[in-house]
Amino acid sequence: MNESRLERLLGMVQARHIDRSLPVPLLICLVCPEAMDVDGAGVSLVTTTTHRSLGASDDIAKEIEATQAMVREGPCMEAIATRQPALEPDLGSRSALVRWPRFSPAVLDLGARAVYGFPLIVDSETIGALDLYSLEPRPLTHSEVDDALILADMAALAIKTSNHRDQSETLDLSGEPQQGWAHLAVVHHATGMTAVQLGISVDEAMLRLRAFAFAAERGMADVAGEIVSRRLRLEAWNHD
User: Fold this and answer.
1) With contact defined as beta carbons under 8 Å apart, do 234 and 224 qualify?
2) Separation CA 213–CA 219 (nearest Å)
3) What whole-number distance in Å separates Cα of residue 131 and Cα of residue 133?
4) Strands 125-134 and 114-122, bridge-based pairing
5) What's this model's pTM, rounded to 2 decimal places?
6) CA 161, 162, 168 angle in degrees (round to 5)?
7) What are 10's strand-pairing partners?
8) With bands split at pLDDT 50, 70 and 90, how would you rate the model's confidence at 172?
9) Adjacent-strand bridge partners of 114
10) Helices in the chain by DSSP H: which ranges?
């Protein structure tokens, strides 16, 4: 894990969080074209009975998500099935037409020429995918793949924790403690515990706490308190 990469991406998502009404999955979609050389992105929640778009950067991204839900093929479906990135640098190629015979022609008609899907995995459960598209045929660079994996992890955390947000608010766990020293002590302790548990540096552990807290839309002290009390343990990023 590159700590500066995680910090850069987290900062980009947080910078767009001025409008608190926008859900985190949508913010991540809006950041993708800024973070990588892609033209748009979409996030979908997929279960055995549901395929629901949770955010899209633009109309083409919305149509790509809708097309996959209808024809049941494409980078989202493949990434979920294989639990690996599904990268197609040229939708007009013969191999792409064989790979996704219904999806590829439909998306080419939208103007997209390349698509890339990344599974959303939390607690070993695949819950959806982050999809990117480009108007030009091109492969993603290794750096862009790494960025997309981190953003997919953040989207997965946001979706998974949203189910528990109402309960957290009811228990009044979302506020920061009034005593500054208590905040710092709890966060420091939780950071050290996470660093030891995952075998990572203290700086990276702090970034993971920040990323989790932001994705869950909870306070740092709340998350740190649950880690210290052993009610929560942060998992390793899926691509480590």
Assistant:
1) no
2) 6
3) 7
4) antiparallel
5) 0.73
6) 80
7) none
8) very low
9) 134
10) 3-15, 24-35, 59-71, 75-82, 94-99, 103-110, 142-162, 165-170, 180-198, 202-216, 220-228
